[in-house]
């Protein structure tokens, strides 16, 4: 069976890495495409994934349209004659359009119901859509998704990131970190280049939080791009991490995670590290999944965040049991079913 997987964002590398390995080990022919954006290439190399890089991420709306249009054409030239049995992606804009046009059965993994442009451009074209059960189906239908093609599951996509996770308790030493305080807070800035968030890439909502908490704990910041890195340069007791790094081990080792994004916050919740979300956009349903279970705290109020952070680093929450479906099995079963049986 020939399978095409398109990876368009850095977190999607961790989502698909074990799927790709399994399929290759089973003797399947897997074509992985990606684009130039953030740390995707570095992560692909770190996990030993062979890939074809096509196109790049656009910053302005005009750039996004131009780059996506060009990428559709370039991907078409690669895929059109490959006789693909099934195409798989997570929030890729281009794969559903190409697979629909070429009559290739497509599997789409979704976890952001507020990505309006992406969802409108993709959901009506997909043959099957795997989405967390907590996301309102009616919301997806507003974008044109066929409710009969939506496959809900209990959990979030970050569960896939830990299928083969091996915790490195010596991660701080291995990175040569000079940590002066007994407590450590890991921070991730907002995705200010994303189309679904109106933000200035030269500023961060984390800045005032860092200014206060640097007096109480070591601060580790993992920026998304160079401009974000500059925001936190030269601040005492703040270490800027250079990707790619073993973020999962860093999250588990840290005493607290404060994130203005989404993926690493949810990873922290899964790893049971106390986490505060200060994401400046509308709260996602997948975040509510962990908030409702007491595994994530959300606030955009500076005093509230500071007080909760100081409380967490002294008194972390007790372990909380979470029931979830086997997403890895769900993804693989649908890849094989679509690949062998074609469109529903």
Note down, in words, how this protein is organized.
The chain is of the alpha/beta class and 344 residues long. The chain folds into 2 domains: 2-154 and 326-341, Rossmann fold; 171-314, Glycogen Phosphorylase B (Rossmann fold, 3-Layer(aba) Sandwich). The protein is 38% helix and 17% strand. It has a 7-stranded parallel beta sheet, sandwiched between helices. It has a 6-stranded parallel beta sheet with strand order 10-9-8-11-12-13, with helices on both faces. Helix 5 links the parallel strand 5 (106-109) and strand 6 (128-132). Helix 1 (10-25) runs parallel beside helix 2, helix 3 crosses helix 4 and helix 10 crosses helix 11. It is globular, with a radius of gyration of 20 Å. The protein starts with a strand and ends with a helix.
Mean pLDDT over the residues: 92
For the largest sheet, list the strands in their spatial order.
3-2-1-4-5-6-7
Oligomer: single chain
CATH class of the largest domain: Alpha Beta
H-E order: EHEHEHEHEHEHEHEHEHEHEHEHEHH
Features:
Rossmann fold, 7-stranded parallel sheet, 14 helices, 38% helix, globular
Summary, kept brief:
The protein has 344 residues and is an alpha/beta fold.
What's the arrangement of secondary structure elements?
Layout: E1 2-7, H1 10-25, E2 29-36, H2 40-46, E3 52-56, H3 61-79, E4 86-90, H4 94-102, E5 106-109, H5 116-122, E6 128-132, H6 137-142, E7 150-153, H7 171-174, E8 184-188, H8 207-213, E9 218-221, H9 226-231, E10 238-240, H10 247-253, E11 256-259, H11 263-271, E12 275-277, H12 285-291, E13 297-298, H13 302-314, H14 327-341
Parallel strand pairs: 1-2, 1-4, 2-3, 4-5, 5-6, 6-7, 8-9, 8-11, 9-10, 11-12, 12-13
Helix pairs in contact: 1-2, 3-4, 8-13, 10-11
